[in-house]
Amino acid sequence: MAITRSTKELSTTAIDCGGTFDVILTLGAQPEITDNPTDIVLILDRSGSMTQSLPALKNAANVFIDIIEESTDGVRDGIIGGGSRIGVVSFSSQATQDTQLITSVAALKASVNALNAGGDTNHADAFTKALALFDPQSANAKVMVMVTDGFTTTGGDANVVASAAKAAGVSIYIIGLSGNGGIDETALRQWASQPDTEFVSIAPSDAQLEEIFGQLAQTIVSPGATNVVINEYLSDCFRILSVSTPSRGTAMLVDENHLQWLIPELGVTQEEEAVLRFTAEHLGACSGLVSVNESIDYDDAQGNTPDFGDPEILVNCGDVVIPEPCPLPVSITMEGCEDEIEIDAGDAVLESLGRILKLDVTIPNVCPGRRVALAVILTEEDDEGNEYRRGMKTLVIPAHDGESCRDVTVRCIRFVLPEELDVSGDAGRLCDQRNFRVRFIANYIDAGFTCCTPDD
Fold first, then answer.
1. What pTM does this model have?
2. 80 in the Ramachandran plot: left (φ > 0), alpha (ψ -120 to 50) or beta?
3. Which fold has domain 38-221?
4. What is the pLDDT of residue 216?
5. What's the mean pLDDT when you consider all of the chain?
6. Rounded to whole angstroms, how far apart are CA atoms 305 and 234?
7. 89 touches 97 (CB < 8 A)
8. Where are the domains of the chain?
9. Smallest Cα–Cα separation from 206: which of 174, 185, 179, 188?
10. Which of 68, 72, 229 shows the shortest CA–CA distance to 145?
11. Gap between the Cα atoms of 57 and 50, Å rounded
């Protein structure tokens, strides 16, 4: 059954700006049908609502039988080989075991072609009769494939029987085929194995039913996965902090946005699942609903193409403004065995003499389309509580264009603090503790005020 599960899940749905969360990658696989004999029961809806779709259903079921038969031994000889078997159950008001689990292609097709539509729809009895075909003592894998519109009109609760079948180790695939009144997808997803995205297929039309049946047959007969290489690339809004040891294979951090997971083999002799967990941290000014992935590249020897999904996480940063750019660096290169080098670095801006204090502040509930004037007043406090001015800055915070008022974060407001101005403790000691106090004053610039004119 090749890849049976591929998911990427997050430990939470929302984080604050700069927060962390866990990412869980899961990959499941099962062996091919030639190495893992499988008993398959086709459960075909022949109720009155399926009258128009029944001819397409018969053709698609016959294609399915042919693919399974050839895959078990590599030849079209009319016999399902390798220890695998197929049975047919059809249902309307009641279900019928049209065949037992057998290997004759001709007998299976004859039972399918003999179906006639009519009556109500009893899904509970269909699952019951299908489950009764399996031998609990058999080591064969057990699979049900049901084709129906999902609307139950008689009988008991089908979900109870389907749940019992899944608990007994049966994999349930459901193909939704529209009858006279559409498809009850909710019921189909309840009955199917999980994740339902991999075990439920919807046929938009009779013409596409044969293609879906063929794809499902290939899924059931395909091998597990070998030489698996997964390259996970995170969005630039995040970085990988740590990678846990995976349950299978090995994982390594290539850089802060890229990890690689190698699995020599998975699901080759039995159904297996591999899980990798890593921790990511939010970076930068990305906010709102953000995609975690840049991409996931998957490769294996069998050519499987699993879809891990593209999960998103809500990052609550409000708007972020960085009003003061950092100084541009001067690049210097020393060649070979040079012991010294002279350069002209140009003008040096007098802003890095001593310690540098960087402040962030959030202005709450800033309404759209209005600029804000922000004043920052910094003082240093001595041991007796006296304050000494160390600087003041006034900044204009640009207006945002959001739909409603929101928080705006101003980052990296910098003050340079020479050591010789230290009044907090011992000014002659390097790295002495210094105590500061900061005050913020903010008001709207664009208040909508205009002076009166004589005509007013």
1. 0.50
2. beta
3. Rossmann fold (3.40.50)
4. 81
5. 86
6. 19
7. yes
8. 2-31+224-317, 38-221, 321-328+350-444
9. 179
10. 68
11. 9
CA angle 270, 273, 274 (to 5 degrees): 130
CA 263/CA 151 separation, integer angstroms: 42
Instruction: Copy the structure tokens of residue 282.
Output: 């939010």
**Structural class in CATH, domain 321-328+350-444:** mainly beta
Among 44-58, 116-130, 194-208, 305-319, which stretch is predicted with the lowest mean pLDDT?
194-208
Name residue 401's amino acid.
D
Pairing of strands 38-45, 85-91: parallel
pLDDT, residue 274, reads: 95
410-420 residues labelled b (16+ CB within 10 A) or e (exposed): bbebbbebeee
Higher pLDDT, residue 333 or 164: 164
- Enter the tokens of residue 369: 């389309």
Tell me the HSE value of 364 on the side-chain side, using a 13 A CA sphere. 0
Give Cα separations from 44 to 103, 111, 183, 251 (angstroms): 18, 11, 15, 44
Flag whether pLDDT at 144 surpasses 80.
Answer: yes
Give the three-class secondary structure for 189: helix
Percentage with pLDDT > 90 across the chain:
48
Residue 84 contacts residue 39 (beta carbons within 8 Å): yes
Segments in 115-168 forming alpha helices (H): 123-133, 158-167
Using CA atoms, how far apart are residues 218 and 70, in angstroms rounded to an integer?
11
Whether residue 429 has pLDDT greater than 60: no
- Does 327 score more than 70 pLDDT? no
Q: State the DSSP code for 5.
A: E
Q: Is the peptide bond before 264 cis (omega within 30 degrees of 0)?
A: no
Provide the percentage of residues in the chain whose pLDDT is more than 70: 89
Please give the CATH architecture assigned to the domain spanning 2-31+224-317.
Answer: Sandwich (2.60)
- Where in 372-419 does DSSP place strands (E)? 372-381, 387-397, 406-417
Judging by DSSP bridges, how do beta strands 200-203 and 312-316 pair with one another?
Answer: unpaired
pLDDT at 20 over 80: yes
Query: What is the average pLDDT across 18-29?
Result: 93
